[in-house]
Amino acid sequence: MEGGKLSAVRIAVREAPYRQFLGRREPSVVEFPPWSDGKSLVVERNEYHFDHAYPSTVGQEVVYQDLIQPLVERVILGFQCTALAYGQTGTGKSYSMGMASTDKPEHLGVLPRVLSDILDRVSAMKENRTGNTQVFASFIEIYNEKAYDLLGSEPHVPMVAARCHRCTCLPLNRQEDLQSLLNLGTGNRRVRATNLNASSSRSHAVVTIHVKSSTFHSRMNIVDLAGSEGVRRTGHEGVARQEGVNINLGLLSINKVVMSMAAGHTVIPYRDSVLTTVLQAYINKITHRTVVSYLLACISPHRCDLSETLSTLRFGTSAKKLRLNPMQVARRKNLLAARTPSMLRVNSSTAIKRHFNQHSANMLHRTRSELGMTPKAKKRARELLKLEEPSSIDISDSSLSFVGFQDQDQQRMPPPGQPGQPSSLHSTAVSVAEGEEDEPEQAAAMERSAMSMSMSTIVSPISLRPSSIQQEISGIQALGESCVEQCPWSRSHVRRSARLANIFAVDTSDTSGAIPQSSTSNLRRSRRLAEIRERSASAVARMETSRIATVRPQQSTTQSEGPRSRNLDPPAAEAWMVNHHRCFLDMLNNGGLRELQKIPGIGPKTAFTLSMHRSRLGCFNDLDQVKGLPIWPGKSWDRFSQVNCLDL
Ligand SMILES: Nc1ncnc2c1ncn2[C@@H]1O[C@H](COP(=O)(O)OP(=O)(O)OP(=O)(O)O)[C@@H](O)[C@H]1O
């Protein structure tokens, strides 16, 4: 079934030509609007939509190619297909289905074309030796509620088996077999002249074409129903009248079956007539994935046949409601894809989707590979690093090259002998010391203090030694320590965002080329915590030392005590305060929410707001900036600074 349509039966409506013997030519009751795209028609101002709508001018060839040829292709692939003609008497059902004999090739109907087509394909398959496929055909009719085997030795003796399982199947090997089969079947079929049709079929005919191979047995049913007729209009009496009644009974029962199925009933009245009993096997599977069905509804252009025409269109509309469930559609597609040769499938949407999926997967893999995220890339990088990892790397060697970096990058590295870019504090302290030569003592004190802080409290990322665990975080072994110091790119403890930012900064700036010493907030969280712990430990140790050296023995010291309470000398007190401010600022800049909450005067809410401001600003440059934040109502900053000894 084409597309993703859920309709189990495809419906086509075909208009019959004018019946000459009705005399006066009147306008047709059926209109084919130009906007309909060959899929809808208008009768009595009601528009009906179907899969195809053919005016009387459309020939047999078009109908065959549109409706039946796709079914032939499916039958060869192992699907069960049914094409059924339904409509009023004299509207061209037998003509369309090819059960009326004709000499002109353009008037050949479905049956001879199908048989011929199947035989051609099977012969081609035999020539290509792609399988041993055989074709058989059976021809039965249901007349007066009895089934007859038209190809059997006694065509006018009713069959016993209700479902006609044991009917005669003639093998079809050549085109000549085909002709003899058609002559035999149509010749045995009961036909009678009525007021409405000179050769009206008095029975429902079912031709089944079997295609048998070693792997499947598919069938194609071509059903030509007798025409519905008003018994009075036919002008028949006696046997002919009874024929008409039985014909209508069969049509009524097939109508009821289709209606029940469309309404979703669980009990379907198949046994109401022989026609539905015989067709039960096919109708039952109409929504099955391996069944493809076409209904050709034939209608008359005459106004006198209007009620019959509307009845036929109603039947078509009911059949349109038979739905495949989406699972069946998906399975049918899969089945079709599995049975279609791969060459034919290459252009299908599934193949295209698969191609794109594969393409995007390749792209993703390539990107991951370029970023060094794939195991292979990691391994390669490790091997390269091992090659370059020198126990004897001399960091003073300016020709030292770093794996994976361009020369220009190398040129932007800090000059040899300078272990990393000095921290901002370091540089500030040095500049102060350099600029204030007239105050040597103070400058020296500041420098001493700054140096001591840079050694103990201010931890430059470059001076960090990643732990062995941290070295493994990125999946790439770290370089030798000297290299790590020189090559900040490979520092796995620096956040990836910071590393990338550094890369872009180096690319776009022509400054010293050194990686800007980002604040420690760019360090990984584990590293920051380790630093805080390290700093607090060293601060305690330092305070202990200074206490022993300067504080009177009787004074107790606690961490919250200020310099005043320790009676420090002014320069020492000032240095202590600078140190303390720096430590505190570090804590504010690097502490997580939990660490911030441990600071006296900071609750969960303040900690959260503080961290939000910190993320917005990057980090706090000094305590004045913290003080200026709109989170200290009233005198809360005073209380906060007091409790944390931030004031002298
Ligand atoms: N599209 C058509 N083009 C040319 N002739 C047609 C067309 N449709 C029907 N006819 C002619 O109309 C006449 C009646 O057609 P046919 O016997 O196929 O009708 P029917 O629906 O099978 O009737 P019944 O149900 O009584 O058997 C035939 O002579 C047939 O050639």
From TrEMBL:
Kinesin motor domain mapped to chain residues: 8-322
Residue ranges of the region described as Disordered: 408-442, 548-569
Annotated keywords: ATP-binding, Coiled coil, Cytoplasm, Cytoskeleton, Microtubule, Motor protein, Nucleotide-binding
Subcellular location: Cytoplasm, Cytoskeleton
Positions that bind ATP: G87, Q88, T89, G90, T91, G92, K93, S94
InterPro entries: Kinesin-like_fam, Kinesin_motor_CS, Kinesin_motor_dom, Kinesin_motor_dom_sf, P-loop_NTPase, RuvA_2-like
A GO cellular component annotation in the UniProt record: microtubule
Database matches in SMART domains: KISc
One Gene Ontology biological process: spindle elongation
Start-end of Polar residues biased regions: 552-562
Keyword Coiled coil: yes
GO molecular function terms attached to this record: ATP binding; microtubule binding; microtubule motor activity
Recorded family membership: Belongs to the TRAFAC class myosin-kinesin ATPase superfamily. Kinesin family.
Name of the protein described by the UniProt record: Kinesin-like protein
Protein's organism: Drosophila gunungcola (fruit fly)
